[in-house]
């Protein structure tokens, strides 16, 4: 059964800093991996979807990488801003092409 | 597209009452998922449908929980009778063409059972 772990659980950084959020998963036979953002009291917003054939995806200041062999994904945020403060969730299928299993998330605070 | 629409946004009910949560997926999406989020357990899959057919309901915690998808544009999650430990945020998500296109989530229903 897929297990998704995110480290660290919480992170506080000064504005402007580049940062990396880590995600690991136990079953590497996945079709894709998805990163989400969740603001307090809100729903989940999809940030990036990486297919198994890809190694990375970029959207603006965000870059997500996927290494299936090691069971890891990272989300890189460049030049962080206070508006980036939120919880970031990583999710991978249970196996192959099955529903997403979520990590507990990393709560990010960017201090102005 | 209006996205995945869930109702109500908030629900406060007394223990023992029936609760019905509703979800309208994105038009054209053929997969629908119900998740529950709590501080302790994070996001957990309750049940998912593919082409309106329930595929896996092993995440449904008890027989008090039931879900239906009578057509491609509507799904319900019912709790009867409700208990305080059911208090959580319930999310609905939909996807097109299997899982490869990613999920779109609704805004969730915050359920409080007193």
Instruction: Tell me, briefly, the overall form of chain B.
Output: globular
Helix/strand-derived category of chain B reads mainly beta
Main β-sheet of chain A: number of strands, strand sense, barrel status? 6 strands, mixed
Question: Biggest sheet of chain B: strands, sense, closure?
Answer: 7 strands, mixed
Order of helices and strands of chain A: EEEEEEEEEEE
Shape of chain A: globular
* Average pLDDT taken over every residue of chain B: 93
Radius of gyration of chain A: 13 Å
Share of β-strand residues of chain A: over 45%
Strand pairing plus helix content of chain A: what structural class? mainly beta
The portion of residues assigned to helices of chain A is under 10%
Kindly report how far apart the N and C termini of chain A lie.
41 Å
The greatest interface here is: A-B, 24 and 21 residues
Number of helices of chain A: 0
Oligomer: heterodimer
Number of helices of chain B: 0
Roughly how much helix do the residues of chain B carry, as a percent range? under 10%
The overall strand count of chain B is 11
Listing every helix as H and every strand as E from the N terminus to the C terminus, the arrangement of chain B reads: EEEEEEEEEEE
| E-strand count of chain A | 11
Kindly list the characteristics that best describe this protein:
heterodimer, A: 112 residues, mainly beta, six-stranded mixed sheet, five-stranded antiparallel sheet, B: 114 residues, seven-stranded mixed sheet, four-stranded antiparallel sheet, 11 strands, 0% helix, globular
